[in-house]
Amino acid sequence: MRHPVLLTLLLPPLLVAGCTSAPKTPATGDSAASTSPSPSAPAIDYTAWQAGKSTPVADPVYPDRGTAALDVLHYGLTLDWAPPTKTLTGTATLQIRPTKDAPNLVLDFMPYQVDAVMLDGTTVTGAVAKEKLTVAAPVTADKPVTLVVKYHGSPKTTPMPSHRSDVEPLGLTVTREGGLWTMQEPFGAFTWYPANDMPSDEALYDIEVTVPAGWSAIAGGTPGPQSGSTFTYRSTDPVATYLTTLAVGKYQKLTATGPHGIPLTYWYRKGTDDKLLPYLKKSPQYLAWLEKRFGPYPFPSGGIVLVDSESGMETQQMITMGRKIENSAARRERWGTDLLHEYAHQWFGNSVTPTTWNDLWLNEGFATYAQDLWTQETLKLSDAGLDRYLRQADAKLRAKLGPPGKPNPKNFAEGNVYLCPEAMLREIHNLIGDKAFFALATAWVQERRNTQQDRAAFIAFVNKQTGRDLTKLINTGLDSKTTPKSIAA
């Protein structure tokens, strides 16, 4: 997610650059579906989805979201959007590995009308209450099952736990013209499909969306064949739920090629987004710059979709960027560096994902540092200027929001998890030099590709990579209530 807008007011301007026909009427409130059992389905070979295997960890920051009791290997989403009635009709097919014996399956899910639920081909009871779908069927640890949920209804968002100036409701949002878009960090995928909505459970995805003629549907993953007005996307690298995206609208499509043939797709509205097109077209330049420092881009394709938001989000393989910005050249330039920030997240946060939200700093510290290094290089700013900027920012943000290593659940993605860990990374960079620092950052994302990581793993890695014990430096940078002396020196 891009720099919170509040930083443009808090910090000096030097480096503030920035993350069909309708079915029956939906029911309101709780919903349920239940019919008699059907014969068991044939055995399924789950090895096809082993790349989606995770080690789920209950999230201490938002414990009501997600569960460590199951590991979703794969989501197959077949969706149909009807703008006139604002009705989303979906069939979600989930391949799930239970991590323990349990009397039921529980997933995060907005209270849509549930039309049918099947587990391994047998129709079972599924009830939605308090944003949880409970499937009344016993499961066994490490014995995978296939869950199918058919549902329909009108999308609703959920509040974002933050005080950022660009804060907006999370999840699937309906536009005035009847389109859709979503941003859902730290949660909100459950507003459009049943999900284990926490960062440690990553999964593979197949998404198919049918929209009216003349409309386009955009999702994360690699674009697949289009049949009429049905669009398909596949993610063969695992994706955390907060990194999935969906947008529907009357878009224009532009294709390009990034470094060593990476296919790129930009989705925009003609007329509305024309002034942002030059920055979309800088994507190959941004990617080449990032690859030089952090190694090969980690996914088979990339792209950007512009939506009616004030923010930006590093959704995997298809970045979601808000078009609502001040109409000034300076703001558009900052928007361009925000876009580079979201591209940096494809390495830091997407390919290597934090295990829990306590380690959001692992995402934002690196992406913000990449963004400010780009700004420094582009504007030919001095090292001393960057150091001074980070010292001042670190002091102000710790005083206002506390240390970044244990963020307040009510202050998600506010400035301390961006600039304070950036200052800590800058300290390591200054200590070991350019060559060693970029070798460290490259090894971190390339050797741990498609994994979930935490602070302890990062400290162990840094100590091994540098041959120094930097445990105190990192822990102090993440836990100190005031700017650490080593940074303030």
Automatic annotation (TrEMBL):
A biological process from GO: proteolysis
Catalytic reaction annotation: Release of an N-terminal amino acid, Xaa-|-Yaa- from a peptide, amide or arylamide. Xaa is preferably Ala, but may be most amino acids including Pro (slow action). When a terminal hydrophobic residue is followed by a prolyl residue, the two may be released as an intact Xaa-Pro dipeptide
Cofactor(s), names only, from the UniProt record: Zn(2+)
Entry EC no(s): 3.4.11.2
InterPro entries named among the record's database cross-references: Aminopeptidase_N-like_N (IPR045357), Aminopeptidase_N-like_N_sf (IPR042097), Peptidase_M1 (IPR001930), Peptidase_M1_aminopeptidases (IPR050344), Peptidase_M1_dom (IPR014782), Peptidase_M4/M1_CTD_sf (IPR027268)
PANTHER family the record matches: PROTEASE M1 ZINC METALLOPROTEASE
Record-stated family: Belongs to the peptidase M1 family.
Protein name: Aminopeptidase N
